[in-house]
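Please fill in the sequence for the structure shown.

STRUCTURE ENCODING:
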């Protein structure tokens, strides 16, 4: 089933809320607007622990924005927090120890989806006593606008020395639905009685056994003080406001009668109870079927994701192999170019050597020729002398 609780009603005047919760302190009271159709992103009254006054009311935004978020935006999944995961989920286990709160509402809405069709029936779950507050367990966090803080640094202007902007936001803790409400939805918000409110808000920082103690209050409400009213489709659109959202639709249906204490004829009690049980069994069976289908879809989706992941890994391996091949080719190319360059240098060296040898040979030849030609004049001179001597 879809998430819950995702829609609520809080129509009480501020004075009525203060009177019921027992405190007159309310921070950002002007942000609260009574509404018959409350959805995420709206500001609602929240009761939290205060070291000085024990308790204080504060208007907070529905849809928790964790303090480490880069932007003041909430995810749809942060509207609710499953009680079973508060100690295992990194985001929630930090808050369960220090930032517990109570969400103030008149009641909340839930929809019964008819299996096999788009039809859905709207129900308003509220306290039997009119205008009696439902206390829902919640967690909150504080997000700060660090960008504004950085702009203020280094400035001496008094207007820039104000505290940086803060956003207080919350989520509603949910648990398994009680047997009486399971026919509508398999989850419900944790509804606290006054004693449980005291335990949930006792002290701001809890550790060890104290954590276990506050966790014990996160259980399904038995529904004895609750009333279920079938309402029209007017509430389906979150933009619609007004008392029409909570007006009963053509009397009470079977599930509403199950909660009702109005007199029922003795001869009809057994029949009515049997009809209710049969309807509940049918709905539970349908829910089980939907759960099985959902599990199968999740399994298929997981297999598909695994396949995509494997394909991604194969692609990455191929790319790595390709890169290695390219690197190897580049190395071979560089080696070849280097060898070619060395061969070229060697050829040039041999050529220079060959030229040098030829020049040396030429010089030797020239020198020999010179040596051969030089004595000739001497010989001729000697012959002349001999002739001269003979004449004498």
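FILLED IN BY: designer on duty
SEQUENCE:
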């Amino acid at each position: 089933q879809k998430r819950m609780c995702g829609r609520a009603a809080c129509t009480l005047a501020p004075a009525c809320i203060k009177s019921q919760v027992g405190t007159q302190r309310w921070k950002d009271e002007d942000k609260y607007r009574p509404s018959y159709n409350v959805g995420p992103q709206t500001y609602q009254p929240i009761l939290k622990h205060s070291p000085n006054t024990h308790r204080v009311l504060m208007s907070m935004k529905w849809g928790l924005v964790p303090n480490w978020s880069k932007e003041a935006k909430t995810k749809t999944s942060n509207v609710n927090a499953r009680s079973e995961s508060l100690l295992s989920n990194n985001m929630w286990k930090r808050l369960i120890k220090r930032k517990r709160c109570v969400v103030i509402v008149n009641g909340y809405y839930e929809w019964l989806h008819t299996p096999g069709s788009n039809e859905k029936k709207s129900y308003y779950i509220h306290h039997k006593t009119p205008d009696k507050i439902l206390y829902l367990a919640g967690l909150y966090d504080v997000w700060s606008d660090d960008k504004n803080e950085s702009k203020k640094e280094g400035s001496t202007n008094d207007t820039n020395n104000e505290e940086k902007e803060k956003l207080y936001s919350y989520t509603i803790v949910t648990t398994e639905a009680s047997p009486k409400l399971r026919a509508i939805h398999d989850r419900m918000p944790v509804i606290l009685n006054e004693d449980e409110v005291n335990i949930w808000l006792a002290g701001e920082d809890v550790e060890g056994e104290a954590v276990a103690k506050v966790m014990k209050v996160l259980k399904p409400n038995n529904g004895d003080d609750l009333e279920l009213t079938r309402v029209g489709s007017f509430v389906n659109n979150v933009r619609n406001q007004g008392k029409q959202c909570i007006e009963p639709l053509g009397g009470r249906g079977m599930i509403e009668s199950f909660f009702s204490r109005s007199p029922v004829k003795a001869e009809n009690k057994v029949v009515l109870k049997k009809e209710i049980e049969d309807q509940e069994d049918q709905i539970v069976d349908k829910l089980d079927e939907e759960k099985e289908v959902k599990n199968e879809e999740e399994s298929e989706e997981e297999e598909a994701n695994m396949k995509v992941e494997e394909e991604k890994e194969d692609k990455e391996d191929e790319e790595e192999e390709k890169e290695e091949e390219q690197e190897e080719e580049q190395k071979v190319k560089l080696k070849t170019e280097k060898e070619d360059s060395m061969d070229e240098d060697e050829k040039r060296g041999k050529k220079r050597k060959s030229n040098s040898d030829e020049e040396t040979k030429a010089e030797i030849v020239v020198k020999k020729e010179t040596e051969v030609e030089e004595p000739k004049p001497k010989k001729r001179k000697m012959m002349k002398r001999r002739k001269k001597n003979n004449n004498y």
